[in-house]
Description:
There is one protein chain. Strands 3-2-1-4-5-6-7 form a seven-stranded mixed beta sheet, covered by helices on one side. It is built from six helices and seven strands, in the order βαβαβαβαβαββα. The radius of gyration is 16 Å and the shape is globular. The protein has a domain at about 5-110 and about 145-160 and about 180-195: Formyl transferase, N-terminal domain (Rossmann fold, 3-Layer(aba) Sandwich). Helix 1 links the parallel strand 1 and strand 2. Helices cover about 35% and strands about 20% of the residues. The longest helix is centred in the last third of the chain and has 25 residues, at about 170-195. Helix 1 (about 15-25) runs parallel beside helix 6 and helix 5 crosses helix 6. It is of the alpha/beta class. The protein starts with a strand and ends in a 9-residue tail after the last helix.
Amino acid sequence: MEDKKRIAVLASGNGTNLQALMDACREGRIFGEVVAVVSNKKYAYALTRAREAGIETLVFDPSDYKSRTLWCSKIASALKERNVDLVCLAGFMVKLEASMMRAFPRRILNIHPALLPKYGGKGMFGKHVHEAVIAAGEKESGCTVHLVDELFDHGPILAQAKVPVEPSDTPDTLAARIHPQEHQLYVSVVADFCSGKLNLEGEG
């Protein structure tokens, strides 16, 4: 039988999407295992989640490296050494360089809390996204899983989930409605990749 896919998750913050992926792997809903969690912040709670689950953690602080390119190359090398098949960004707040794309061509996914191509790009993360959606008077929002390229929130879209934007919504209430959809959508796409149902070579 084919081995489970080896997944690395890159996270900068709380790690709720990481938790959803770890849970799904443990429960057999994803035919894969999270083998490493990488952060640019040594105190990110995502690292605590990983350690409690017995998963290796790695910290690469960009300020410790002479260039962003070198920093990214070091991450890529570490994941290659661990025979990673798929890289999942889960609230990772630093843009990856071309060296990462070359190391894992069409094997890096991201989840974004809006319906791309709207409300993506530099500075569009977390509460900022939901504030922009509400300010624009949008009737719906949601989340998007996409392939990662060298631009923020730009690569080919793989899947989306939609939620209504209510007239009374605040950024926090909208985020609370979207978060469960993020977890379900990300797990679904990663599960499809690990089972061979998602052919990333043919996307975009």
